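User: Assemble these into one structure.

Assistant: Restating your components, then the assembled model:
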Amino acid sequence: MSLKILVPIKRVVDYNVKVRVKADNSGVDLANVKMSMNPFDEIAVEEAVRLKEAGVAAEVVAVTCGVTACQETLRAAMAMGADRAILVETDVELQPLAVAKLLKAVCEKEQPGLVVCGKQAIDDDANQTGQMLAALQGWPQATFASKVVIADSKATVTREVDGGLETIAVTLPAVISTDLRLNEPRYATLPNIMKAKKKPLDVLAAASLGVDIAPRLATRSVNEPPKRSAGIRVGDVAQLVDKLKNEAKVI
Amino acid sequence: MSILVIAEHDNATLKASTRNTLTAALKLGSTVEVLVAGHNCQAAAQAAAVLAGVAKVKVADAASLAEGFAENLAALVVSMAAGYTHILAPATTYGKNFLPRVAALLDVAQISEISAVVDANTFIRPIYAGNALATVESSDGVKVITVRTTAFDAATDGGSAGIESVGAPADLGCTSLVGRELSVSERPELGAAKVIVSGGRGLGNGDNYQQVLAPLADKLGAALGASRAAVDAGFVPNDYQVGQTGKVVAPQLYIAIGISGAIQHLAGMKDSKVIVAINKDADAPIFQVADYGLVGDLFEVVPQLTAAL
């Protein structure tokens, strides 16, 4: 099978970092903060690499849009097993619609048979890009995937929906977005990290793709959420029940 | 100009999320219409028509809309988008699935999971799993919005809107249903429950989870939830998960049992009205957000609590 899988990934603040809002409320403080691949995108890379290892896919291409430093994230994807990578380079603040348009331009060049992406990035929590790309391409989508089977030019995908699971079949090409339980991403081994340094990484200027990537939403301020203060310790169950009944009045 | 709310329903009944989304819409303007798209969905349309504040219900009834697939639903919404200033859907897996397609096809941004309305163009939304709140202003002609359901009260009944049919676009035919495995439970839905009993890795295994927590949940008429650690350890299915990567909940009472309180869990429950934590580790971070903390062995304390209620 000659299926080519495109895996869009995003460089985000590492999920273990406790982000802090800047004192001037203009955003969160990203200075000297550890950056990593978005966890849902790691799951997407893993799934694509497994499909290649299973003989279902022929090639896995990782792609990201953003600043020069995103090359590190692409190298990480190649260390996991992606064959090559593309950076659509720009310093412009990218919002999901802009990323979807850039990815559409990449899809037109690369003609993948399947796109596998993370369901959302853990920085802006937008959960939009995969669905937007599918819509712009006129493709079907299977979001929040917990199981993927590719056969007969179709993807059969089990989706994690509110209240349970839903399994759908979509025609290819399609966009699949990954949920947490699809797989457990591998750690890159040292030899594979070394090998990844030699894999091809193409850089395209975003401006050369001829799409409008101007932000549509302006951030007016970013604030800390209201702090919840610790309450009291109760000594035993009787005291707890009394408090819930007579003080909080919730039971 | 009016505002369009896309109802979440199962053709027979409206989901509670529709009521919360309507409340958000009514903060934006007074003329709110509701779209019920489905198949044999007259009952859901009737339920939408009696919601207080709804000016009109539009019903698109077609076999191609029966399963609520994103492709056909988005095409329908785009076909009728002209004339609306705002298009809203709940930020549930239903709304999150199709609404970005609508935004992309209309060439506008989507404003995801708003938790407050500042004005008709400006909204507050959580970012970084709720560790920061961004105030964003849209310059697009039509605002396409998903609504964090726990941040808005449920709209009540009391209206009597007219119901009008709209045509559905041609079936795109790219998606078919293979099957659904929906959790069948006597308990309330996690996202809409007034009381949630939630368990973590402290329960030890799935049998303990059920034996210790289910009787308490039954007494309280509560939904059961879990931390990601408990889900990852296989105690319960993923749809129990409360947290950044699971469901965001805000019940009247949230009882966290054997849950340490990882940032990712707190992100999903810290807007609950009253939080109770039961944990044997007195230093567990969950106590920093709990209104009432009880340090003790959950295997002793929880059955006592169940018996005392």
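The first strand of chain B starts at residue 2 and ends at 6.
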